[in-house]
Amino acid sequence: MTRVVPGSGWLARWPVIRQLKGEDPRGSAARSARTDALRPRTERADKVARSVCPYCAVGCGQLVYVEDGRVTQIEGDPDSPISRGRLCPKGSASKQLVTHPGRQTRVLYRRPYGTEWEPLDLDTAMEMIADRVVRTRRETWEQTCEGRVVRRTMGIAGLGGATLDDEENYLMKKLYTALGAVQIENQARI
């Protein structure tokens, strides 16, 4: 039986032995040429924009890295007094809001009793929505209820989304209140 002596042959070249002997304190033995060739996703960014995460009312700071007009990375902003560079899982995934291949970029409409979605131009869609809101308000308006003046409609309700910021939610609340809606809620919670 041959005895293998540390320091000779293949065993001496084994990264674990070099690290245990203290010859490789920074771990370069475990590095490869591929590892050394890797670069941070933020390195080639043309510009960095400071932003606020759109998901909830906390307002965590974000750094949005842009290369050739496209978002390449979104990270927490270490200078933000609110989040100090940290993001929750939803905030960390917010890059997908603008880059996900399944993101809808046009209006789709499915007619009543229809089985297929069809593209619609934005002006037509906005007109359809406005007509339906005005008609619903007119048809469901209540001036009084059980002898009390209420001036409301129960036919319109508002449910805000988590990707609306505080200013957008403020405007939505004002719009629904002006329409007479009283069923207004927001889902901006983690």
Automatic annotation (TrEMBL):
Keywords: 4Fe-4S, Iron, Iron-sulfur, Metal-binding, Oxidoreductase. The keyword 4Fe-4S applies. Its EC number is 1.17.1.9. One of its GO terms (molecular function) is formate dehydrogenase (NAD+) activity. Its cofactor is [4Fe-4S] cluster. It is found in: Cell envelope. Residues 23-43 are annotated as: Disordered. It comes from the Bacteria. Residues 46-102 form the 4Fe-4S Mo/W bis-MGD-type domain. Residues 33-43 have a biased composition (Basic and acidic residues). Transmembrane segments: none annotated. The keyword Iron-sulfur applies. PANTHER family: FORMATE DEHYDROGENASE-O MAJOR SUBUNIT, TUNGSTEN-CONTAINING FORMYLMETHANOFURAN DEHYDROGENASE 2 SUBUNIT B. Belongs to the prokaryotic molybdopterin-containing oxidoreductase family. This is Formate dehydrogenase major subunit.
